[in-house]
Design goal:
Length: about 350
C-alpha cells in the first residue's frame, strides 16, 4: 500500500497537470468574452478558486486567508474548490466553472501559451518548486550530480517536465529512466534507485514506511527555475475584474505570510474539514518544510513580496525548455505571466 501523505497514492498532481494546457485552448478561447463578476447579496465579489489537489498544507495560505477573514475584509466571497485526480484546473477555467485556478508548475501557463489560450499566471506563491529527487541515505551523495548512472523512477509526464532540465544540467540520459507507478516499494527495495517526489510528502511517507530517512535533493536549490502554486487567471476575467483580482492576490499573500510565520491552526482546521483523510502530523511536517526551505518567502519574495514573479525566472525556464525542444524557440514566453496585479507590481513584469 502506498500513500501521498496519509491517503491512497494517486498519480502525482504535477504529473497529471503538466500537460493540461494542450487540452483546453479552444475552450478557453471560446469562453473568454465579457466576464465581469457581479457582487453577491452582501455586495461582495464571489470568486471560485480551484486548487490542484485535495486540501493540504501546500494550500495553507489560501485557507488561512479564508479562516482569518482576509478575503472578506477586501470585499470578496471566496470559495476554495479542492482538486483531485479527476480535476483539470485549465478545463474548469475554460468552462467558466471557476474564476481562478492554481497552476502547479511553470509548464502549465507555458503550455497554455503554446496552445494560444489567453490565461496567465498572475502570482506565484511558491518561489521554489518543491519537486525533489529521493535517494537512499548514502554519505557519498552530496549533490544531484552524484546520481549519475543510477536508475530514476519517473512518471510519464515528468519526462517532458523537470527531467528535461535534469538532462540539460547534469547530462543524465533517458536510459536511466524506469517507470514510476506511484508505489515506493521498488524504490525502497533498490538501494541505488532515485525516485521523484514532493518535498512535503513522499520523503515523509518513505521514512514512515521504510524506517529510514531518505536523502532528498530539492531541485530548486540546484537552480531549477520553475515556480509553483501559481494563481492562474483568464485574460478577460483579469481585464474585467482587476480590483477584485488585486484584492484576491493581496489577501492570499497575507494568508501565506500568516500560515508560514504565525499560527496555522485555523487554516489546518479548514483543510481537515475539506479533506477528512488529512492528519495533523502530515500538515505539521509539511508546513515546517515549507518554512525551513524558504518555499514561500525565500528568494525574490524576500525582496519584492509574497507572490512575486520575475521575467528573469520565466526566461530562464523558457530557455532550458525551448533548447530541449519542449517549446518552439519563437514562442512568446512573456504571455505566460503578468505582474500587474501584484501588490507593488512585483519586478520585471508587464
Amino acid at each position: 500500500m502506498t500513500s501521498r501523505g496519509n491517503r491512497q497514492f494517486q498519480p502525482h498532481r504535477r504529473a497529471l497537470l503538466a500537460g493540461a494546457g494542450a487540452l483546453v485552448a479552444g475552450a478557453v478561447l471560446a469562453g473568454c468574452g465579457d466576464s465581469e463578476v457581479a457582487p453577491d447579496a452582501d455586495g461582495r465579489i464571489r470568486l471560485r478558486f480551484a486548487t490542484d489537489w485535495r486540501a493540504q498544507a501546500e494550500h495553507g495560505g489560501f485557507y488561512q486567508a479564508l479562516a482569518s477573514g482576509a478575503y472578506e475584509r477586501r470585499g470578496l466571497n471566496v470559495e476554495i474548490i479542492q482538486g483531485g485526480p479527476g480535476v483539470n484546473v485549465p478545463q474548469l477555467l475554460a468552462s467558466g466553472a471557476v474564476e481562478l485556478g492554481m497552476g502547479s508548475n511553470s509548464f502549465i501557463p507555458m503550455n497554455l501559451v503554446a496552445q494560444g489560450a489567453p490565461v496567465k499566471a498572475v502570482a506565484a506563491f511558491f518561489q521554489k518548486d518543491p519537486q525533489v529527487l529521493i535517494a537512499h541515505p548514502d554519505p557519498a551523495l552530496r549533490s544531484i550530480a552524484d546520481l549519475a548512472g543510477r536508475p530514476f523512477l519517473l512518471a510519464d509526464a515528468s519526462i517532458n517536465a523537470f527531467w528535461v532540465w535534469l538532462k540539460a544540467r547534469y547530462g543524465f540520459t533517458d536510459d536511466q529512466v524506469r517507470k514510476y507507478n506511484f508505489n515506493p516499494a521498488p524504490f525502497i527495495a533498490d538501494p541505488r534507485a532515485v525516485q521523484q517526489g514532493y518535498l512535503t510528502s513522499e520523503p515523509y511517507t518513505i521514512e514512515k514506511e521504510a524506517g529510514f530517512v531518505p536523502r532528498t535533493f530539492l531541485l530548486a536549490d540546484e537552480g531549477y527555475p520553475s515556480y509553483a502554486t501559481m494563481v492562474l487567471a483568464p485574460d478577460a476575467f483579469a481585464r474585467d475584474n482587476a480590483e477584485a483580482l488585486r484584492s484576491f492576490i493581496a489577501a492570499s499573500a497575507e494568508g501565506w505570510r500568516d500560515y508560514i510565520q504565525g499560527d496555522g491552526r485555523a487554516a489546518d482546521a479548514l483543510i481537515r474539514r475539506d479533506n477528512p483523510e488529512m492528519t495533523q502530523d502530515i500538515l505539521d511536517q509539511a508546513r515546517d518544510k515549507l518554512k525551513s526551505n524558504g518555499i514561500v518567502d525565500g528568494g525574490d519574495a524576500a525582496l519584492y513580496g509574497l507572490g512575486t514573479m520575475t521575467s528573469e525566472r520565466w526566461q530562464a525556464f523558457f530557455d532550458v525548455t525551448s533548447e530541449a525542444g519542449v517549446y518552439p524557440a519563437d514562442l512568446d514566453w512573456r504571455q505566460a505571466f503578468t505582474t500587474q496585479y501584484l501588490p507593488g507590481r512585483g519586478r520585471g513584469g508587464r
